[in-house]
Specification:
Layout (H helix, E strand, L loop, with lengths): L1 E6 L4 E8 L3 E9 L5 H5 L7 E5 L3 E2 L18 E4 L1 E2 L12 H8 L2 E4 L3 H11 L2 E6 L5 H10 L7 H4 L5 E3 L10 E6 L5 H9 L2 E6 L5 H6 L4 E4 L10 H13 L4 E4 L1 H9 L4 E17 L4 E13 L1 H5 L3 E7 L5 E6 L4 E4 L14 H16 L1
Parallel strand pairs: 3-4, 4-6, 5-7, 6-8, 11-12, 11-13, 13-14, 14-19
Antiparallel strand pairs: 1-2, 1-9, 2-8, 3-9, 10-12, 15-16, 15-17, 17-18, 18-19
Helix pairs in contact: 8-9
The chain binds glutamine (GLN).
Glutamine binds next to β16.
C-alpha cells in the first residue's frame, strides 16, 4: 500500500502504508517513548491525533492481550520509521500491521520520522492527513483543508453509563469508595486504585455533583482524557460544585489536573508541541527529588493563574519549567500533569496513589 503524510503547510512525506486502508485527518504529534507502542495507541488521550514515533523500530514485540489501556486504538494514525512484521515475544498474538487493520487505523512506515519531529519542534503541532489508499497530493490537501481539529473529545471518550469496579486487593479492610470523573481513563489508572483497595464508580461526562455525592464517596478522582480542557465546560462546572460542596479528598491526573485548575479559577494554554514520552524529568518541590515520568499532554496549567487561587505548585518540568503538579493550601486536593500510572514508562511516581489513599483514610478518621 502507498503511504502518504500530508501536513497543513503543504509538506509531503511518502512511505509505505500498513494497518487499515484508509485516510484520516488529525493533529500530528510525536512520542519519544522507546517501548510501549500498544499502550500508547490504546491510550484514549490520543483520540484525534496522529502519532509520529521517534523510536525507529516499531512492532518488534508484536501485540499482546495484556497491554491495552482501553478496548480500542484511539489514535487516528501512526507514523514509524522501520516496521517489524516478525515479532519476537511469547505474549504476542499478532503483528501491529494486522492489529491496526482490525482496528480501522492507518499507519505509514519508511518515512524520516526525525525530520517530521524536527518540523513539529520548530513549527509546533500541525494538522495532518495520513492516507494508505493511494490518494493524490491535491486530494490530501483538500481533505486537510476540510478536516476539523476538535477539542471536545473527552465528552465521547468517557464511559457512557455509571460503572462500578470492585477492589482488586485481598485486604480485610473495607474498600475505600472512589468516585471517578471520567474523561477517557487509561486502564492502568483504574488498576492502580483498585490494587490499593478502592472500589470505583465511574461517572459519565457531565454527571451532576449532587448525583456523585449521593454515592457518598471517600474520595474523588479526575481522569486523563483527550482534547482541550477548556472545552470540558460542563465537567468544570460540576467539579467547581464538588470543591465547594464536599471537602473530601480529590486527586487529578493530566486532563483531571487541568480541569481542576480551571474549576479553581486558573487557566490552561496550549504548548507548542506538548510532552509525549517515557522520560520527562520532573522536580518535586516537597521531596526535593527529581523523577523520571511518563507524559502525554498538549496543554498545561498557567503558573501565575493558579498560585493566586489557593494552590501551591508542587512539581515543575525540568526541561521547560512548566507546571507539573499542584496542591491546595487548605483543602485535600492535589493533581499532577504527568502519569504516575506509567503505562508505558517508569513507575517512580506511584507513591502519589498512596498519598491519595492516605488522604482519604485521614479524612474518614476525622469525620
Ligand atoms: N493525557 C491527558 O489527559 C491529556 C490531557 C489533554 N488532552 C492534553 O493534551 O493536555
Amino acid at each position: 500500500m502507498e503511504g502518504l503524510i500530508y501536513l497543513e503547510d503543504g509538506t509531503v512525506f511518502k512511505g509505505t502504508g500498513f494497518g487499515f486502508k484508509g485516510t484520516a485527518v488529525g493533529e500530528l504529534v510525536f512520542n519519544t517513548a522507546m517501548t510501549g507502542y500498544q499502550k500508547i495507541l490504546t491510550d484514549p488521550s490520543y483520540k484525534g491525533q496522529i502519532i509520529n514515533m521517534t523510536y525507529p523500530l516499531i512492532g518488534n514485540y508484536g501485540i499482546s492481550s495484556v497491554d491495552n489501556e482501553s478496548e480500542k486504538v484511539h489514535a487516528f494514525g501512526v507514523v514509524v520509521k522501520d516496521l517489524c512484521d516478525m515479532p519476537s515475544n511469547s505474549n504476542s498474538i499478532m503483528t501491529i500491521d494486522k492489529w491496526l487493520r482490525d482496528m480501522g487505523v492507518p499507519g505509514v512506515f519508511g518515512v524520516d520520522t526525525r525530520q517530521i519531529t524536527k518540523k513539529i519542534r520548530n513549527k509546533g503541532t500541525v494538522k495532518c492527513v495520513i492516507s494508505t489508499e493511494g490518494i493524490s497530493i491535491s486530494e490530501a490537501a483538500e481533505i486537510c483543508d476540510r478536516g476539523q481539529i476538535r477539542g471536545d473529545w473527552m465528552k465521547e471518550a468517557a464511559v457512557k453509563e455509571k460503572t462500578v469496579m470492585k477492589s482488586l486487593s485481598d485486604s480485610d479492610e473495607k474498600p475505600l469508595s472512589v468516585a471517578v470523573i471520567d474523561f477517557g481513563v487509561k486502564g492502568n489508572i483504574l488498576t492502580c486504585l483498585r490494587e490499593r483497595n478502592c472500589e470505583l464508580t465511574l461517572y459519565p461526562y457531565g454527571t451532576l455533583a449532587e448525583q456523585i455525592l449521593a454515592g457518598k464517596p471517600d474520595g474523588i478522582f479526575l481522569t486523563n482524557g483527550p482534547g482541550d480542557p477548556e472545552k470540558a465546560e460542563e465537567a468544570i462546572e460540576e467539579v467547581r460544585h464538588l470543591i465547594n460542596m464536599s471537602g473530601i479528598p480529590m486527586f487529578g491526573i493530566c486532563m483531571g489536573h487541568q480541569v481542576l485548575a480551571i474549576a479553581l479559577g486558573g487557566k490552561t494554554y496550549k504548548l507548542k508541541y506538548g510532552h509525549r514520552g517515557g522520560n520527562h524529568g520532573v522536580f518535586d518541590k516537597n521531596t526535593k527529588r527529581s523523577y523520571i515520568t511518563s507524559q502525554n499532554h498538549g496543554y498545561a496549567v498557567q503558573y501565575e493563574s493558579i498560585i493566586l487561587k489557593g494552590m501551591e505548585i508542587t512539581h515543575l518540568n525540568l526541561n521547560d519549567g512548566t507546571v507539573e503538579g499542584m496542591e491546595h493550601r487548605d483543602l485535600p486536593i492535589f493533581s499532577v500533569q504527568f502519569h504516575p500510572e506509567a503505562s508505558p514508562g517508569p513507575n517512580d511516581t506511584g507513591y502519589l496513589f498512596d498519598k491519595f489513599i492516605a488522604m482519604m483514610k485521614e479524612d474518614k478518621n476525622n469525620a
